[in-house]
Design a protein that fits this description.
There is one protein chain. Helix 15 runs parallel beside helix 18. The protein is an alpha/beta fold and 398 residues long. It contains 23 helices and eight strands. It folds into four domains: 94 residues, Orthogonal Bundle (Fumarate Reductase Iron-sulfur Protein, Chain B, domain 2); 54 residues, no CATH class; 96 residues; 117 residues, Rossmann fold, CATH 3.40.50.
């Protein structure tokens, strides 16, 4: 398991000491490129952690800000000649910080997002905000001009009331796959879930939806609560026992695969390799789509080719990668909620690229990225939908 909860300060310091301060990470770090501050680079953050664990530095709000501004996109790990496990180091540092009593209020927030009841509650709040006229009043008063409030205001449009869990479907002589639906995605990506179910049923692929599944634990792990994250993984391992877990969010699939008893596969790879799709007739679609490659798909699953291969099954579809796919869009799990100003700035180049290309839609395989980019496209006045690749496939299979 990707367990950082047991890392002592000595073990964390040993991990940090693997960094030779070469600086190869600086050009690929989104926050360093944005702020040009050494403390907002992987090398700088490692130095801060070393100073803290070695007793030379005391945690301050400024210290916390530099650690919290890290996206954990893991781009630095791809270029590090010393193979520093920066993601594990950052998770461990945040966990140690939380263990010292800082961030207890935040724990309640991340736990709320990581439970079915919490997602339903937030969906209810977002629905009331929109339907009772409060959102209209906010727009009329101009309060939405404030960046942080404007972000939450736009984000509320992404939440929907979670639908009933889809029924299981069997196929003669076939072993079912288990659908992993996640937590927040149940309320923000209802169309994606419906499209996934339609594709599997159209292709005759048996599936079940384990009722005891829960959040993958990523939100908890990356915000300082690894033991709670491990508990989520253990619960999912039991829920998917004997099943191949099929997920549509690349970050969730990567997190599930951290548990040795979980065999998770991303939906684009699964469908791309399925004989049922190879034998199916897919209607042509004369349109251009642009593919956003999430950091979780590029750096953790390392399988973005599956997305392009799947889309290539749609005749006449013009597929183009989004310029700047090597840089994080700013969503980064819960980052778009805790660091909205930075998240908006990191998405600016991508929105400009979409504006220039004017595609029929933007596709991505990560739910957080999809929400973030959809919000930013709306804020920029662009009526370009953000879809999961399986949504396009579902339309053309029908």
């Amino acid at each position: 398991m990707n367990d950082t909860s047991g890392l002592s300060p000595v073990a964390l310091l040993r991990l940090a000491d693997q960094c030779v301060k070469c600086g190869y990470c600086l050009p690929v770090c989104p926050t360093f490129r944005l702020y040009r501050d050494e403390a907002d680079s992987p090398r700088g953050r490692i130095a801060l952690i070393q100073g803290w664990l070695g007793g030379a530095l005391s945690p301050t709000p400024r210290f916390d800000a530099h650690l919290d501004r890290c996206l954990e996109c893991r781009a630095c790990e791809q270029v590090c000649p010393s193979r520093v496990r920066f993601g594990a180091l950052m998770d461990g540092a945040r966990a140690l910080r939380a263990a010292h009593g800082r961030g207890r209020l935040a724990r309640g927030f991340w736990h709320l997002l990581s439970t079915a009841r919490g997602v339903v509650a937030l969906a209810a709040v977002a629905t009331l905000y929109r339907r009772t006229g409060v959102a209209w009043l906010v727009e009329r008063l101009g309060i939405a001009r404030f960046p942080r409030l404007a972000f939450w205001h736009e984000l509320s449009a992404a939440w929907r009331w979670p639908p009933a869990r889809p029924m299981s479907v069997s196929a003669a002589g076939a072993s079912p796959v288990g659908l992993f639906l996640g937590c927040v995605a149940r309320a923000t990506h209802t169309d994606t879930i419906a499209a996934l179910v339609r594709v599997l049923e159209r292709l005759g692929i048996a599936y079940v939806v384990p009722p005891t599944q829960t959040c993958c634990g990523g939100l908890l792990r990356h915000n300082g609560w690894p033991r709670a994250a491990e508990a989520q993984l253990v619960r999912n391992a039991a829920a998917f026992a004997g099943l191949r877990a099929l997920g549509f969010a690349s970050a969730c699939v990567a997190e599930l695969n951290a548990h040795p008893a979980l065999q998770a596969v991303e939906i684009c790879r699964f469908l791309r390799d399925s004989p049922q799709l190879a034998a199916a007739t897919v209607r042509p679609l004369r349109a251009r789509v642009v593919v956003h490659e999430p950091c979780s798909h590029r750096h953790l699953l390392r399988d973005t080719a599956a997305v392009y291969d799947l889309l290539a099954r749609i005749p006449e579809l013009e597929v183009q990668p989004l310029p700047g796919n090597d840089q994080c869009c700013g969503a980064a799990g819960g980052y778009l909620l805790t660091q909205p100003e930075t998240a908006v700035r990191l998405a600016a180049d991508k929105i400009a690229a979409v504006r220039a290309l004017q595609p029929a839609c933007l596709v991505t395989t990560n739910t957080g990225c999809a929400i973030h980019l959809a919000v930013q496209l709306r804020a920029a006045g662009l009526n370009i939908p953000v879809l999961h690749p399986v949504e396009l496939l579902a339309r053309q299979l029908e």
